[in-house]
Amino acid sequence: MKIRALTGNEAMAEAMRQINPDVVAAYPITPATEVVQIFASFVANGLVDTEFIPVESEHSALSACIGAAAAGARVITSTSSQGLALMHEVLFIAAGLRAPIVICEVNRSISSPINIHCDHSDTMGSREAGWVQIYAEDAQEAYDLTIQAIKIAEEIFLPVMVSTDGFIISHCMQRVEVMEDKEVQEIIGVHRSPYSLFDKPITIGPLDLQDYFFEHKRQQIEVMNQSLPVIEKVMSEFNARFNRTYSIFKTYKIEDAEQVVVLCGSTCGTARVAIDKMREKGIKVGLVKLHIIRPFPHKELIELLKSFKLITVLDRSDTMSTMGGPIYVELRSAMYGCSQHPTIVDYIYGLGGRDIDVEQIMEVLLNGEEIIKQKKVATPIGYIGLRE
Amino acid sequence: MKDKKGWRELPIGTIITEPGSAREFKTGDWRSQRPVWDANKCSSCLICFIYCPDNSIKIGDDSKMTGVDLDYCKGCGICANECPKKAIQMEIEKR
């Protein structure tokens, strides 16, 4: 193990080098450009055996990845924002074909208005595509989760995207523990494909009408149903080997808490500081960091969250459904199945890279204390750092 | 529909494991007109064979036309239009 100073993008590129995928097809986009730019230099310098395909768009990038995966290759690509949007139709194809592709995704807002900074509207807009979606908090997690993503994808034959927050993680240099190349190869193991064009003759992607389409979709729902235990298994194997503590979500000081904050991505660090400061004032608050958004770990979250007085969700995107952000909408839907019905409120924050600080989160938590005291929610959906 | 396989029995990722299975997918069932071939008028020039977009003109071992494959013919009428001997007439499909 080596300790290095890496940005999130460098960490993901380093993980890719150690994975040494057979094929990488990618198109540059801010703030994810560096991931493949750095990786392309690894290819040019002969540090990897990868066939690098510079394509003309993200639609082509993911299409080329599907072709390579169908041939039995281990495949990775990287994108962000509009790039992920341009991949949108191909995302569904990759999932339907059960192609174990990994996308190193860097979260950025979606136009319009045009903006290059972080929010989660790009990946949250892909929730129905059938991909496993993992969110990283920092450069270390970006590195670790990229390696785990390969293993998860090839265990269950589903595509996986790992997301980091644009600029906040992707371009900030942090301390990263980097494993030996050999260790990474040992943990990911020999590449597994669901099928290969080089074996017996097969047809991939045929027309599938009223008589079988429904059955094939039901299969896909089933593999999503079965994926959570596989993700947990991969995470615990990784933890045991590299002394880490990954799980589908991570709790912080929730044991005696009355109010818990639920969120994902880089703001978790800011929120933990806010929690510590609140606890210095004697206010019992805790935090749940979500790593896995797809599949949505609803049963586990119900079990975890059912007995708190208040759940405060922080969403870095909105669903435009007038019902709040995606984590809030899904968590509320999940909690409907639990008899206790804790109060849940939502705050949209950080759209287009708007900064969020400790004091703002403390204010939100204080509002929460007021809600618990008054037993009344005036506005279930609020906004942090927005000018009225 | 009930005799078809359930979702648990299907191969992963919608793949088809047997080659040439498109042959079993009869695509001629939405035809509104059918070509009717008159063997007596036909000179087996095979212009219809060349023009048919779907390879639906059947030819025997002696390279002579033997009929139209209605399993795949969509009834476009190009064969009837091109036939120099007027040996193919399009008729309304009745089912």
Coarse morphology of chain A: globular
Structural class of chain B: alpha+beta
Measure the end-to-end span of chain A. 50 Å
Strand fraction of chain B equals: 15-25%
Measured between the Cα atoms of the first and last residue of chain B, the distance is 22 Å
Give a verbal description of the structure.
The complex is a heterodimer of chains A (388) and B (95). Chain A is an alpha/beta fold. Chain A has helices spanning 8-19, 33-44, 58-70, 81-86, 88-96, 121-124, 139-156, 181-188, 213-242, 267-280, 298-305, 326-335, 358-374; strands spanning 2-6, 23-26, 51-54, 75-80, 102-107, 132-135, 160-165, 174-178, 249-252, 259-263, 285-290, 292-294, 310-315, 343-348, 381-383. In chain A, the strands form three sheets. Chain A has a seven-stranded mixed β-sheet with strand order 3-2-4-5-7-6-12, with helices on both faces. In chain A, strands 9-11-10-13-14-15 form a six-stranded mixed β-sheet, sandwiched between helices. In chain A, helix 13 links the parallel strand 14 (343-348) and strand 15. The longest helix of chain A has 30 residues, at 213-242. The radius of gyration of chain A is 21 Å and the shape is globular. Chain A starts with a strand and ends in a 5-residue tail after the last strand. With 95 residues, chain B is of the alpha+beta class. Chain B has helices at residues 47-51, 78-82, and strands at 33-37, 57-59, 65-68, 88-92. A two-stranded antiparallel sheet of chain B has the order 1-4. The two termini of chain B are 22 Å apart. The mean pLDDT of chain B is 94. Classes of the chains: A alpha/beta (388), B alpha+beta (95).
Any chance you could write out the topology, listing elements then pairs?
The complex is a heterodimer of chains A (388) and B (95).
Chain A lengths: L1 E5 L1 H12 L3 E4 L6 H12 L6 E4 L3 H13 L4 E6 H6 L1 H9 L5 E6 L13 H4 L7 E4 L3 H18 L3 E6 L8 E5 L2 H8 L24 H30 L6 E4 L6 E5 L3 H14 L4 E6 L1 E3 L3 H8 L4 E6 L10 H10 L7 E6 L9 H17 L6 E3 L5
Parallel strand pairs in A: 2-3, 2-4, 4-5, 5-7, 6-7, 10-11, 10-13, 13-14, 14-15
Antiparallel strand pairs in A: 1-8, 6-12, 9-11
Helix pairs in contact in A: 1-2, 1-7, 3-5, 7-9, 10-13, 11-12
Chain B lengths: L32 E5 L9 H5 L5 E3 L5 E4 L9 H5 L5 E5 L3
Antiparallel strand pairs in B: 1-4, 2-3
